[in-house]
Write a structure and sequence with these properties.
Layout: H1 2-7, H2 13-43, H3 49-76, H4 86-150
């Protein structure tokens, strides 16, 4: 993990999540389909040769797709880049820049929303403070009039 942190000094963890969301979701879908296919093959009793070949080829295709999505995810994480040519590296860079841009926009929106919420809370606290000051003033006024009357 320390090695990965060095490779991602310019990316935040939020941008990583945004950049990887498409690959992660499709990888999850492929893995789920592959596991389902594997379970189907395991459950099947002796099938005619043609059906078994079809099931096996589907499983092999899904396994290959899983491996490809895993490789793409590793590349998005900055791993396994040595085999990429210049065009593939440019494409990867565009994907990461887009994800980083969306992450920064989301972060900015959340900062502004938080600032707005804090400003509203500050105004409410100032109003409450003013009301408390008025109550203390009224109390002090009553105290000034009532205490001499009892002495």
């Amino acid at each position: 993990m320390a090695m990965n942190a060095r490779k991602f000094t310019s990316c935040s963890s939020t941008s990583d999540l945004v950049s990887f969301s498409v690959v992660i979701s499709s990888t999850g879908q492929v893995i789920q389909r592959r596991n389902l296919q594997s379970e189907r093959i395991d459950r099947l009793d002796p099938l005619p040769s043609l059906e078994l070949q079809l099931e096996s080829s589907t499983y092999a295709m899904l396994s290959k797709e899983t491996a490809e999505k895993t490789r793409e995810l590793r590349q998005l994480r900055g791993e396994e880049l040595q085999g990429l040519d210049l065009e593939e590296l440019k494409h990867l860079e565009k994907l990461l820049e887009g994800g980083l841009s969306r992450a920064m926009e989301t972060k900015d929106e959340r900062f502004f929303k938080e600032i707005s919420t804090l400003q509203t809370q500050g105004a409410e606290l100032m109003e409450e403070n003013q009301q408390l000051k008025q109550q203390v003033s009224v109390f002090n006024t009553w105290k000034t009039f009532l205490i001499p009357a009892f002495i």
